[in-house]
Each structure stands twice: as structure tokens, then as C-alpha cells.
Amino acid sequence: MPAQLLDSEAQTQNATPDVNRRSAYFSPSVWGDHFLSYASMETNMETEQHVQKLKAEVKMMLKAPVEKLSPKLELIDNIQRLGVFRHFKNEIEEILQQIHKDSYVNCDDQENGDELYTVALRFRLLRQQGYNVSCNVFSKFTNNNGNFKESLVEDVLGLLSLYEATHLMTHGEELLDEALTFTTTHLQSATHRALNPVVLKQVTHALYQPLWKGVPRLEARHHLSAYQDHNSHNETLLNFAKVDFNLLQQVHQRELSDIARWWKDLDFANKLPFARDRVVECYFWTLGVYFEPQYHFGRTTFCKVIAMTSIIDDIYDVYGTLEEVELFTEAIERWDVSAMDILPDYMKICYQALLDVYTEMEDKLANEGNLYAIHYARESMKIQVRAYFREAKWFHQKYTPTLDEYMSLALVTSGYFMLATISFLGMGDIVTKDSFEWLFSNPKIVKASEVVGRLMDDMVSHKFEQKRGHVASAVECYMDEYGVTEEEAKVTLTKQVDNAWKDINEELLNITTIPKPLLLRILNLSRVIEVVYKNEDGYTHAGGVLKGFVASVLIKPVPI
In what residue span(s) does the Terpene synthase metal-binding domain sit (predicted)? Predict the structure, then answer.
């Protein structure tokens, strides 16, 4: 958008006219009014009966006696990958509990002859379920020197199974570190051989996006196609997963339609043209955190808060003067409609919308008897804005902090603590005051999620941000402090991301008083950042890979 248009739009909102303001020239929304068109659709009785029939048949498969371990593990794996795990939680927990007891607690030797594929699949499924099983089960696949046997190289499915398992590693598991290097090297080589096309597709996708770090809804959409390509697929499970995906997609479309209408009524694209218009991408982010139908309030709230935070971020990062953002920070601290009096008009628009979102949230929480939670929601936003202001001061002072100093602030500005807080609001009765107090105590899993969020973002967005004028990122801070190249800095920062994932995995395995569903929100926040910022800033440059992701989960139904 031309600078003159930005200036004229802003002046109509009573911003100081003669200030030299920055502009990021963000691209407009790629979606326009597309999602306004989804009308309310009710599931007909015939479809509902068909779904229940298929679900019952899948449940019978799960309850069938275990004659051989591998097929049962594969069934559980496919149920999880296809996104229908929520329908069979109790059955799967019971089966995995028994497998854990037989294979690890009772040290049953019957599985010692298992092939790599089965051992790795069992290990991954148990770790995903929270069982802290030992990686020493893979020692039998190494030689006397501790290296993985070369005879494994031809076992592509075994390598793939081990590769997926390695992404659940924790600190000190050198065997899994070695396994990741070994499997990555040989799977990459395998893609250049004459592989079965179905296996090639699996390997290529896994190398790009490991399952554990993927967005569940996106992985389900991919696996629906991949699973159908397998000659051995179960038709009942496949049909159930297809219908379930499409029904849930309709729920999400209706939700997004309501949110898109709210966003259009705010008219930020015209009133605040300097900011990113990304409400659809915010909803995709939200789906990454929780897609299950019972979390309607959580999704609506989370999406609106992240959309508003994006606008506030652009005010601090791009458009606002230091004096203006200081006023906005003061207004957030006061959290009262009367605080708008001190703001320029363009900020009043944003501030009023933010208060309205939180008032809506407050009313809903009051009706549920959880009014206490609004305090934590507001406090997390205040913490976020204070950090934005401090970062803005660094920029205006042309200050380059040390990496440690930068990270102490940038972990907050990543937004992941605030978003974790908001995600808890939508989790119903399992959330307590103790849950929020734990969250505000800066637990390791939250800090690790912030590290993933901040460094993944910085490594792909720092050049674009420096062009328009932005405080130094982790990349610049590291280069400046240690006198290294950009590439060398990114190697080190990537290792820090890997270590943060080990922290996340470790915390998920630790016995805790915090309910597992709450920890999964934090895990899912990390997954979203891995996907959106893998090779580019997919959120800012939304016409790239993220556009395809949005289409696959929110526009295109699965062919039945």
C-alpha cells in the first residue's frame, strides 16, 4: 500500500500528521469476504446414524483380542493420525496401559524379536500417551561400537518408524540423537531410490514435517489421502474418518464465518491500514491449539484475542510513535473505557475493540461460574503490552542487547505466555485457579514453548523486519555478540529450538498436578509455530504455504 494512502488513512483517525512513520507494506488479506458465505448447516439424522454405526464398528476393532501386537499398534496409530482419537480415548488408553505393563513393567521377553518398525511404533505411541519408557529398547539395533546397524538401511518403513519416534526424545538420550541423524540421512537417500510411490510419499512428508511436531488437524487431512493410498487400509475406519473430518470442518466454517463478520464490522483493513489483516490465519492458528467440537468458546475467544494482539503488535512495531505507545501502555494498565481519552483516535478504535472482546469473555466466564479467570486473562495482556513497550524503547534508542538480555524480553513478546493463558480459558471445568497460578510461575514447558516461538519466528522474519526498521532479533543479537555469520548464528539458534523441544517432551512425561489436556494446549502452540514458521514467516506473508494449509482444512472437504 502506498505511503501516501497510509498517511491519509491515519490522519483521518487523528494520528499526528507530520510524524515520519514506518510502514511494513503488509500484503492485504488473501481471503477477502470468502468466509462470510458459510451458512448454518445442521447434520441430518441419516448422516448422524451412519457416523454412529461406523464409530461402533471401529470400537469393535479396538476391543478385539490382541493376537499380534503390530496390527493393534497400527490401528491405534491410524486412529490418532486420522484425527478421530477423541472418539476412542478410553479404549486406546486401556490398550496402551496393558501394552506398557506387558512390555516394560513385566519385562515380557516375547517382543525381543520384534522388528524395528514395531519396536519404534510401540515406543512412540507409549511416549505420546505419557509413558516415560526407556529408549534402551533400540540398543539391540546397534552394533558393538554403539552405531546403528547398516543392515537397517534397506528397511525403509523401520527407519521411518524410528525417525518419527526420535522426535519425542528428551535430554540425555544420545541413542535417539544418533537415531535421528541415522534415519534422516538414510531416508533422504531412500527418496532417490525406486521406492513404492506410497512409501515415497510417506517418507517425503515425514522429512518435511515430523508427525509429533505437526498441527493435528493438518496432519489428519494429509493422512486421509496417504491412508487411502495404502492397499491394506481399513475401509470402515477410512470412511468414518472422512465423514468426521467433513462434519467438523463444517463446524469450523460456521465459527469462522461468525468471526469473519465480527472482523469485517470492525473494519480494521480500512481504519488501521498499516496493520496485518489476518483473521483467517488467526483462526487456523486457533485450530492448531484446539479443533475438537466442544471447545467452541475457547476457539472464538482465542481467535479474537490473537487477532487483536496482532493489531497491537503492529501499532508498537510499525506505526505508533514512542509517545503514542507509551499512552497505549498506560491505557492497558488502567483497563478502563475512560482511559481512551488520552489516546489518538486510531488507537481508540483498537482499544475499544480489545475491551469489548474481554467484556464478552468476562460475561461468558461469569455465566459458567469461572469469573476469577478474567483476572489472569487481563494480567497476561498487560504483561504482553509492557514487553512491547520496552522493545519499542530499545528500537528508538537504537539499542542492541546481548542475546540473554534480548531473550528475557523477546520470550514475552513472542506472545506464547499470553496465548497459553487465553487457551486455558476455553478448557471448561478442568481449569482451576491453581492451573493459572502454575502458568504464571513460569514453568519450564511454557518457557520452552516461548523459545520455540521466538527463535523460529526470528530466524525466518529478521531480514524483512530489519528492512522496515525493527529492534534487533535473536539473529542480529547473536551475530553482534559473538562476531559470527548469519548462517553460524542460525545453526546455534536451531540447536536451542531442538533443546526447547526436549524440554517440552520431558515436561509432558513428568508426573504433574496439571491436567494433561492443559499441557496439550502448550504443546499445540509449539506445533503451530513449527508449521507456520518452518521456512518462512507464513503469518505475515500469508499468500505462501499457509494459504494452502488454510484451504486444506477450512475450504476443501475430503472426497467421500
Answer: 264-503
Q: Can you say how many angstroms the Cα of residue 532 is from the centroid of all Cα atoms in its chain?
A: 8
Residue whose C-alpha cell is 516415560: 132
Give me the pLDDT at residue 106, please. 58
Task: Name the amino acid, one letter, at 365.
Answer: L
What average pLDDT score do residues 267-274 get? 96
Residue 311 and residue 350 in contact, taking contact as beta carbons nearer than 8 Å: yes
Q: Provide the percentage of residues in the chain whose pLDDT is more than 70.
A: 92
Among residues 458, 461, 447, which one has the least CA distance to residue 408? 447
C-alpha angle with apex 288: 500 to 487, nearest 5 degrees?
A: 40
DSSP track, 311-343: HHHHIIIII--HHHHHHHHHHHHHTSGGGGGGS
Separation of alpha carbons 453 and 450, rounded Å: 5
> Which own/partner pairs from 377-383 qualify as long-range (CB within 8 Å, at least 24 positions apart)?
377/305, 377/421, 377/422, 377/425, 378/335, 379/440, 380/417, 380/418, 380/421, 380/422, 381/305, 381/309, 381/332, 381/354, 381/418, 382/332, 382/333, 382/335, 383/412, 383/417, 383/418
Give the separation between CA 349 and CA 354, rounded to whole angstroms. 9
Q: Judging by beta carbons within 10 Å of its beta carbon (0-12, 13-18, 19+), is residue 184 exposed, middle or buried?
A: middle
pLDDT band at 114 (very low <50, low <70, confident <90, very high): confident
Q: DSSP secondary-structure letter at 142?
A: B
In degrees, rounded to 5, the angle at the alpha carbon of residue 412 between the alpha carbons of residues 407 and 418 is 155
Which residues, in sequence order, are CB contacts of 549 under 8 Å at separation 6+? Answer: 215, 218, 284, 531, 538
